[in-house]
């Protein structure tokens, strides 16, 4: 090159946009050890660890989950955690908000099981109580897995975690904690709707969707906002009353719970036959059935059939039929009807 000549500079090509990753089945892959290199750290270590398999309870709000949690809390050899994804657990112990609910019979403290874990708020690092309410089995949530594992390892005896926020995270829980036993609790949707309203007289069957937010005490609006990208049938424009949306979410939760859980139990069955219901549940979970006899007296209160004082059966059925039709259309889709690649999301 002659002195003074300009060198030609070749700029690197602009990075190409990432191609969507197809959602493939990785269930047959595990992180294995490398016997050829024994000095290298071993793989294949699951997050569940040693000890008895934990029990995860999944239930919607106002379904009797506090009652079921309290039964395990009074069972020998168990550490039962109340709502591990409750937002107040992000705060130091002295700032945690007490739960004041007169319908929770025989419960006056909810957070004592957490007190043995120093710095718990440093483990609860993301808004898991209100974001990413849907998780696939392959979604990447290492901090959430570490937090739940911390609770399990801190338990004295067997850990029981009672959730109201994992309805649509059950596939992820099964994948990350394969040894865990999942229990699904559900309640009649009409009675559950009245319970969620707190004061049914304040928002009646002829009130409008636009007037519902002040009466939304259990996050129906925020759940729909978070889940609608995964479940597009959750569309406020497609329902004539908030009960229609409540029922859609209830039924989706019911379908997910029945599909992924080891055992499903109705609140009504628990109230009507507590000795038999608890005994069978404990037997499924390999808990001495004699323990059930000791907690049966805790099953008190609870009323069924209150919905008849709110509206007649035809009113409820009309909203339920509309929701069922939408759900049938949504679940009848087939993978071979989708032409675009399915993106494997990173929810972390």
Give an account of the 3D structure:
There is one protein chain. Strand 2, helix 2 and strand 3 form a beta-alpha-beta unit. The radius of gyration is 24 Å and the shape is globular. It has a single domain, classed as 3-Layer(aba) Sandwich (Rossmann fold), CATH 3.40.50. The chain has helices at 65-73, 142-154, 170-176, 189-197, 220-227, 242-260, 267-272, 274-284, 290-295, 313-331; strands at residues 55-59, 78-82, 158-163, 181-186, 263-266. It has 348 residues and is an alpha/beta fold. A 5-stranded parallel beta sheet has the order 2-3-1-4-5, with helices on both faces. The longest helix has 19 residues, at 242-260.
Q: How is the secondary structure organized here?
A:
Blueprint: E1 55-59, H1 65-73, E2 78-82, H2 142-154, E3 158-163, H3 170-176, E4 181-186, H4 189-197, H5 220-227, H6 242-260, E5 263-266, H7 267-272, H8 274-284, H9 290-295, H10 313-331
Strand content: 5-15%
* Sequence stretches where pLDDT stays below 50 over 5 or more residues: 341-348
As a whole number of angstroms, the C-alpha radius of gyration is 24 Å
Q: What is the CATH topology assignment?
A: Rossmann fold
Structural class: alpha/beta
> What is the ordering of alpha helices and beta strands?
EHEHEHEHHHEHHHH
Main beta sheet? 5 strands, parallel
The percent range for helix content is 25-40%
Number of helices: 10
Report the end-to-end length measured between terminal Cα atoms.
52 Å
Q: What is the top-level CATH class?
A: Alpha Beta
The structural domain count equals 1
User: How many β strands by DSSP?
Assistant: 5
Task: Categorize the overall geometry.
Answer: globular
**What integer is the average pLDDT?**
88
The CATH architecture can be given as 3-Layer(aba) Sandwich
Sheet with the most strands: spatial strand order: 2-3-1-4-5
């Amino acid at each position: 090159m002659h002195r003074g000549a300009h060198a030609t500079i070749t700029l690197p090509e602009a990075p190409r946009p990432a191609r969507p990753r197809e959602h493939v089945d990785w269930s047959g892959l595990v992180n294995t050890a490398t016997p050829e290199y024994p000095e290298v750290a071993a793989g294949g270590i699951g997050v569940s660890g040693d000890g008895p398999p934990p029990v995860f309870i999944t239930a919607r709000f106002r379904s009797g989950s506090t009652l079921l949690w309290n039964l395990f809390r009074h069972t020998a050899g168990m550490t039962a955690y109340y709502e591990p994804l409750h937002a107040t657990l992000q705060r130091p112990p002295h700032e945690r908000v007490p739960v004041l609910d007169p319908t929770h019979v025989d419960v006056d403290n909810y957070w004592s099981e957490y007190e043995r874990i120093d710095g718990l708020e440093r483990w609860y690092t993301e808004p898991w109580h209100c974001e990413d309410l849907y998780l696939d089995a392959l979604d990447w949530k290492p901090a959430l897995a570490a937090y739940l594992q911390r609770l399990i390892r801190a338990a004295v005896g067997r850990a029981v975690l009672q959730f109201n926020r994992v309805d649509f995270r059950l596939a992820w829980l099964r994948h990350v904690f394969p040894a865990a036993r999942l229990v699904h609790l559900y309640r009649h949707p009409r009675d559950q709707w009245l319970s969620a309203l707190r004061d049914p007289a304040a928002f009646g069957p002829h009130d409008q969707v636009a007037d519902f937010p002040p009466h939304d005490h259990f996050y129906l609006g925020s759940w729909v906002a978070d889940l609608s990208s995964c479940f597009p049938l959750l569309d406020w424009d497609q329902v004539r009353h908030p009960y229609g949306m409540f029922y859609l979410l209830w039924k989706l939760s019911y379908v997910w719970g029945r599909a992924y859980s080891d055992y499903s139990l109705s609140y009504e069955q628990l109230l009507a036959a507590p000795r038999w219901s608890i005994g069978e549940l404990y037997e499924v979970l390999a808990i001495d059935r004699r323990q059930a006899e000791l907690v049966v007296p805790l099953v008190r209160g609870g009323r069924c059939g209150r919905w008849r004082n709110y509206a007649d059966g035809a009113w409820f059925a009309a909203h339920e039929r509309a929701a069922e039709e939408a759900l049938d259309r949504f679940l009848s889709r087939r993978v071979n009807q989708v032409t675009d690649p399915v993106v494997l999301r990173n929810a972390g």
